C-alpha cells in the first residue's frame, strides 16, 4: 500500500531569482510541494531578487496578514536616466548629464523621500484603477492618473555613489542604497522621484529584498535548493515570529474554536493581528482586539 504524500502546513521563504514573476515562483512551488494550496505574501517585480514569503496548505491563511509587515531592500538607483517602467526593464525615455549632482543634493533629496510620505506608484504596477490593473492600462496606451498613497520610509540610506557612463554616452551616477519601508512602498518610485527632484531623472537598476517582517535572507532558499529539500517553517513557528503571542488554556481554546469571542487582555489592545496558541503550542487562530473582545481573523483549527 503506497503512503499518501502530505505537505506540512507552513511558510517557505524563497530567495526569488531575477526574471521570475511572483506567480512563476508559486507555480514552481506547487510542483515542488505537490499541492495546489500555495500563495505568496507581497509581490516582487520580475527584475527583483530576494525574500518572497510563500504559504503552503493552511498557512495560506496567514499571507494577507504577513503582507502588511515592514520590508527591507538593497538596490541600485541610476541618476541621469528615466525609463518607461521606472526600472531597468523599460525602455529609456530620457537622459540628462548627472555628473554635477552633489552628495549634499542627493542627501537633501533622500530626506524629502523619508518618513511618512505620499507616493504615486509606477504606471506599470499591479495597482487596480477602476478594477483594471495599472500595467494593463499602460500597455494599451491609456492616459490615466494613479492617486498618491501614504507610505512610510523608515530608513533610506546611500552606501556608495559611483560615476558611470550609460550606453548612450550620458554621464550618470549609480547609488547603492538600502531602504526600510512599509508595505505598499515602491522602491522604483523612490528612484524615479529622487531623480526628478534632482532634475536629472532616475530609475532602479537592481533590487534585492533582504527582509519581509521577521523573515530574512539567511532563512531563504533558492528554488534549486528547495527542489533538493523542501524546507517548510512550521505554521506555529511562523506565526510566533511574525505576531504577538497569546497563550490560552484548554477551556478558552475550545470556546474560541467554537466561535465565542473571548475577553482580550489589555496588553494586546492596538497590537493588530495576534497569534493565539493552545496549551500544546498549536496555532489556533489569528485574532484582533475589537471592543475588548478577540475578533477572529483566521482560524486554523
From TrEMBL:
Catalytic activity, EC: 5.4.99.25
Residue ranges occupied by any tRNA pseudouridylate synthase B C-terminal domain in the UniProt entry: 188-230
Xref: Gene3D superfamilies: Pseudouridine synthase, PUA domain
Domain Pseudouridine synthase II N-terminal: 31-187
Single GO MF annotation: RNA binding
Catalytic activity: uridine(55) in tRNA = pseudouridine(55) in tRNA
Keywords of the record: Isomerase, tRNA processing
Active site per the UniProt annotation: 45 (nucleophile)
Enzyme class: isomerase
Any one Gene Ontology BP term: mRNA pseudouridine synthesis
Domain tRNA pseudouridine synthase II TruB subfamily 2 C-terminal, chain residue ranges per copy: 243-300
InterPro entries xrefs: PsdUridine_synth_cat_dom_sf, PsdUridine_synth_N, PUA-like_sf, PUA_sf, tRNA_psdUridine_synth_fam2_C, tRNA_psdUridine_synth_TruB, TruB_C
Family the UniProt entry places it in: Belongs to the pseudouridine synthase TruB family. Type 1 subfamily.
PANTHER family in the record: PSEUDOURIDYLATE SYNTHASE TRUB1, TRNA-PSEUDOURIDINE SYNTHASE
Protein task: Responsible for synthesis of pseudouridine from uracil-55 in the psi GC loop of transfer RNAs.
Name this protein carries in UniProt: tRNA pseudouridine synthase B
Gene: truB
Amino acid at each position: 500500500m503506497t503512503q499518501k504524500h502530505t505537505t506540512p502546513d507552513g511558510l517557505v521563504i524563497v530567495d526569488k531569482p531575477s526574471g521570475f514573476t511572483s506567480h512563476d515562483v508559486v507555480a514552481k512551488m506547487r510542483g515542488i510541494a505537490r499541492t495546489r494550496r500555495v500563495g505568496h505574501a507581497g509581490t516582487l517585480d520580475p527584475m527583483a531578487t530576494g525574500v518572497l514569503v510563500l504559504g503552503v496548505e493552511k498557512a495560506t491563511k496567514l499571507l494577507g496578514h504577513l503582507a502588511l509587515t515592514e520590508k527591507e531592500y538593497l538596490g541600485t538607483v541610476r541618476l541621469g536616466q528615466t525609463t518607461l517602467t521606472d526600472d531597468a526593464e523599460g525602455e529609456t525615455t530620457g537622459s540628462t548629464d548627472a555628473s554635477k549632482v552633489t552628495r549634499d543634493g542627493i542627501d537633501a533629496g533622500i530626506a524629502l523621500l523619508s518618513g511618512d510620505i505620499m507616493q504615486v506608484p509606477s504606471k506599470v504596477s499591479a495597482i487596480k484603477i477602476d478594477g483594471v490593473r495599472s500595467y494593463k492600462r499602460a500597455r494599451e496606451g491609456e492616459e490615466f492618473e494613479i492617486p498618491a498613497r501614504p507610505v512610510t520610509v523608515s530608513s533610506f540610506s546611500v552606501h556608495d555613489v559611483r560615476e558611470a557612463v550609460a550606453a548612450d554616452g550620458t554621464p550618470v551616477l549609480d547609488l547603492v542604497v538600502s531602504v526600510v519601508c512599509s508595505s505598499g512602498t515602491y522602491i522604483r518610485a523612490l528612484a524615479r522621484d529622487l531623480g526628478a527632484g534632482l532634475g536629472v531623472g532616475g530609475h532602479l537598476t537592481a533590487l534585492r529584498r533582504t527582509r519581509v517582517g521577521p523573515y530574512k535572507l539567511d532563512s531563504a532558499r533558492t528554488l534549486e535548493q528547495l527542489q533538493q529539500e523542501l524546507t517548510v517553517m512550521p505554521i506555529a513557528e511562523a506565526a510566533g515570529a511574525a505576531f504577538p503571542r497569546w497563550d490560552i488554556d484548554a477551556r478558552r481554546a475550545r470556546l474560541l474554536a467554537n466561535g465565542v469571542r473571548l475577553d482580550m487582555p489589555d496588553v494586546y489592545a492596538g497590537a493588530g493581528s495576534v497569534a493565539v496558541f493552545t496549551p500544546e503550542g498549536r496555532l489556533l487562530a489569528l485574532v484582533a482586539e475589537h471592543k475588548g473582545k478577540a475578533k477572529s481573523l483566521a482560524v486554523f483549527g
